[in-house]
C-alpha cells in the first residue's frame, strides 16, 4: 500500500492514477491529519508514503514523525515545487526519505517508487 498526501487534488489524483496504472494499491489524503486517520484505520502494511512538503495544517515532518510512531518502517518520498536549498542539503527529516521535486513525470515517479520499494526487500 502507498499513502499519497497532497493538498492539491489534481496532483494527488495524477499521482494516484500513475501508481494504480502500474499495479500499486493507493490510499490518498488531502492533509496530514486525514492521512494519519486513514493510516490508523488501515490494518495492512503501508510500505511508502508520498507527501507534499508544504501543506496547510499538519506539516509534513510532523505528519511523518507521527506516522512512523505507528509504522516505523514506512518509507517516505517528499514532493514539492518549492524545495529550499536547506531542504535539499539536509534531505529533510526522517530516515529512509527521498526527495522528488515537482514537476515530475509519471515515469519518473514510478521509477523512484520502484527503487525505494526494491531497496526495502
Automatic annotation (TrEMBL):
One of its GO terms (biological process) is phosphorelay signal transduction system. Residues 1-117 form the Response regulatory domain. SUPFAM superfamilies: CheY-like. The keyword Kinase applies. GO terms for molecular function: kinase activity. The modification 4-aspartylphosphate is found at residue 52. Keywords: Kinase, Phosphoprotein, Transferase. This is Sensory box histidine kinase/response regulator. The lineage of its organism: Bacteria, Pseudomonadati, Planctomycetota, Planctomycetia, Gemmatales.
